[in-house]
Amino acid sequence: MTPVRYTLTARILHWLMVLLILGAFALALSFDDMPLSPRKLQYINYHKWLGITVLWLVAVRLLWRLKHPAPELPAHMPKHEKMLAHLGHIGLYVLMFGVPIGGWLMSSAKGFPVVYLGLIPLPDLIGKNEELGKLLKEGHELFAWGLLLLAAGHAAAALKHHFIDKDDVLRRMLG
């Protein structure tokens, strides 16, 4: 039987990831033009910790989703909107994995270790390569902006459903 609303676990993971992704993005914007300093290095570490947390949580979220299907989209939705919704969700998952993995790859290529929460050293994913590190930085930033734009479109669609279509799509994720 298809559920009417998302499970409590799915809702908690969804909103927690919203906060973590926005926090990581805000941190990146705050340190991007900052001169090298202990404060900048600490902000970069916080950013990495948030990114790795997002990576672990999106894996948990995907596993949860595979065992607990999402509610069906409203019957009144046109076929093209349903297709866009499915493609948007796939894109969000790809980018929620891709952005943190890209950041981890970038750190590895630039020769900066990722030490989760300052306690758990994570392995380098690739060897040090400054040129590749620059390319990965550009990709990481581009994908992060893509994630933010796709998430904004996702939120706009939810608001459209709530205020224009007057259906329960948004309420299913609110509880």
Automatic annotation (TrEMBL):
The chain crosses the membrane at residues 12-31, 46-64, 84-106, 142-163. It holds the Pfam family Ni_hydr_CYTB. The keyword Metal-binding applies. Its cofactor is heme b. InterPro entries: Cyt_b561_bac/Ni-Hgenase, Cytochrome_b561_oxidase, Di-haem_cyt_TM. Keywords: Cell membrane, Electron transport, Heme, Iron, Membrane, Metal-binding, Transmembrane, Transmembrane helix, Transport. The keyword S-adenosyl-L-methionine does not apply. It is a multi-pass membrane protein. Its main location: membrane. Gene3D superfamilies: Transmembrane di-heme cytochromes, Chain C. Residues 5-175 form the Cytochrome b561 bacterial/Ni-hydrogenase domain. It comes from the Bacteria. It is found in: Cell membrane. Belongs to the cytochrome b561 family. This is Cytochrome b.
